[in-house]
Input
Amino acid sequence: MLLIEKVGHYYSDHMALEDVNLEIAQGELVSIVGPSGCGKSTLLRCIAGLVRPSQGQISLNGKEITDVPDNLAVVFQDYSRSLLPWLTVRDNVALPLRRRGGSKAARRAAAVDALEAVGLANAAHKYPWQLSGGMQQRVSIARALAYQPALLLMDEPFGSVDAQTREDLEDLVLRVRKRGMTILLVTHDIDESVYVGDRVIVLGRAPGRVVADLAVGLPTARDQITTRELPEFVHMRAEVGRLVRGNGQTFNPGPPFSS
Amino acid sequence: MSSTTAGRRPARHGLGVLTAALHRWLALIIMVVLWELGTRAAKSVFFPPPSKIVRQMYHLWFSGPVSHLFLTSMATDNILPSLARMAVGLAAALVVGVAFGLLLGRSDRVLAYLDPLFQFFRVIPPPTLAPVFVVLFTFGTPMQLASIIFSAIWPILLNTADGARSVDQLQLATARVFRLRATTRLFTIILPSTMPKIFAGLRLSLSLALILMVFSELLPGTTDGIGFLLVDAQSRSDLPAVWATIVLLGILGYLLNVMLLVVERRSLAWHHGARRTEAT
Output
């Protein structure tokens, strides 16, 4: 479905991505994990058509991505800036449906359905800033769901919420995928990449390139407590952890907070 | 949550409202009392006491028939045309200012071409243009409107441009991802996001419009208006009427500003709400 060939991207002063090759099939849930500053978000923005890669090409269903594709949605990390504070939660969710046509009532009904799917039907008439961070991120997920994209990109979606909320939202993603959309989740959290993904792509330190492409051998039905106890999970997260840190060589966390 | 943010502010009722109002008006009340005492003691014809000014205001403008809301014909013939000119001028400045401001803020090319020009026009004190406007437009209302618009447009235009330039990048990225049409992007993202700045400009423009409203009515060729009343009273050496006109202008300015604040509070409820939650 999504084909990434020899993609590289450099900004004026540094190389963010180099020779990235990936193929993602319809219906997959793929985690992209890597140290901060490895170009994960750049890759995601290239796929979204927001950034034109300097090298290589990306195609969606055989068509090269030159602008934002029609059937794609993005959930950004910074929910408070991506939701519009002057619109109610329901109108925020209904906003992208405008291009799809239909009456205002139908769009609003679809928005309420999507909010129900993320457990926020009661908040439809509130404003985003009246909700907690986790709830706001649910609203942006609902907005993406209502849009019914074939491909959903999530850029560090749970980076700014507390641990408990994070787990709830991870489970929400697992529920959402049953709708059949292809999901690409960018994260720097190793546990999260393994817990949520069918497949984990590890990007190396900048310039980012694919250092590993691992299938996750966990059952489809997952649970925050029991799944994390499974030997496969423990083994896998250790492997991914080593890869992210640099292939099991000497422990070198790199400069903290570099981005 | 809305309930918690509302609850965090101290509840105001009964005595609280009264003391708050008293604090607000205390300085004014003291000043008026001192003014009254001072002018009565001085007995100068140039400085009539406030009580006399108020009686004069009542006599001139507010002793009319009930059917005219107590307004005299002098009031309806002068105050209303002034306010109408100001409203039309301000509305035109708002529409044109916002339209150009959005263009200027969203297009680097337009900005590069027009910004130096606008910065130049902006610093010209509007009264100095009155002689030009007298030549360009007919005496009376057209010239007065031109003066009001030309002075009131700049704060709105430049503030709108500033606001439109600083629309959140992530909001615009979101609009691109969901492929919103240009009109949707304009009316649901750029314009609302610029609203707080537009109102900030409008507040400045309101006081400028009031100043230019009066000023343009002081010029020759004027046949009605508050400024006309002022010149007229002065030429008749009717000092209480001069003072009454000045006080009337103060009251009008205050009321118009209060009205604007009410409108702003309603249309920017989201802005103040979001700011409050950010602060806590």
Notes: The radius of gyration of chain A is 18 Å. Chain A has a mean pLDDT of 88.
